[in-house]
Amino acid sequence: MVNENKNVVIEVEERHFLFKCVPMDQMDKITHCLAEFVGTASLLVLSCMTCMEGLGSEIIPIQAAFGGGLTVLVIVSTFGGITHCHINPAVTLAAAICRYVSVPIAICYMISQILGAIAGFALLRAVTPSELHYKGNSTQLWCLTLPNERIDPIHGFAIEAIITTLLIWLCCALWDARNSRWQDSVSMKFGFTVIVMNLAAGQLTGSSMNPARSLAPALIANYWTDQWIYWAGPITGSVFASLCYKYIFHRNAPKECCTVATLKAELIDKLME
Fold this sequence. Notes:
- By secondary structure, the chain is an all-alpha fold.
- The chain has a single domain, classed as Glycerol uptake facilitator protein (Up-down Bundle), CATH 1.20.1080.
- It has helices at about 25-50, 60-80, 90-95, 105-125, 155-175, 185-205, 210-220, 230-250, 260-270.
- InterPro entries: Aquaporin-like, Aquaporin_transptr, MIP, MIP_CS.
């Protein structure tokens, strides 16, 4: 008789060091959603803080434009290594259409973004005096995205759809494996793109491009006039841009493009499935 010693390898599921009851892959998903929540809340706090008109000085368009764009730059720099850092349901919708995130994850992201936007705007209102919450001497809540008086709703819808299309094309280009070698300045690309869109459309529609960003002030102010523009426009632009890029512009990347950045992105996507 020969006794053979067999080594039995038991795989132990990795768990979070603090929350032992939660498997690590589930904890990662929770962390991603939490980062979307905090990132979108930060977007509302900082971008709305840059356009407060009750301090006595008039807000010039370039101030609001750069404030919004640089806010996006900071948030993407901060949370880009934790999550996909969409902070925008229109971006998440495009990512789902292009199959960069799964549908369940996309839904969780969108819920996190909407709740984060509401929480962020509510927090900003809570920590600032009530006399700063309105535009000049009017009773209109500040930070509402509204079309200019000379812009009718249909034109407003078209403008929001166009600028969102351009934003989503940037997203699709950065997700494209062919651009994996140029990922170091992603936050700057997003930030300055938002600045350009704000300069172009800020005085026309408020340059929202983000349903969650528009929803939070409208919900808290209970002001719904023309707010459909800021859902229909970005969603239309997102669907059009993502489908256009997916079926017209996209190509399979050559092997030399499969750099560390590409492999990292693929690993993140697998973990999110």
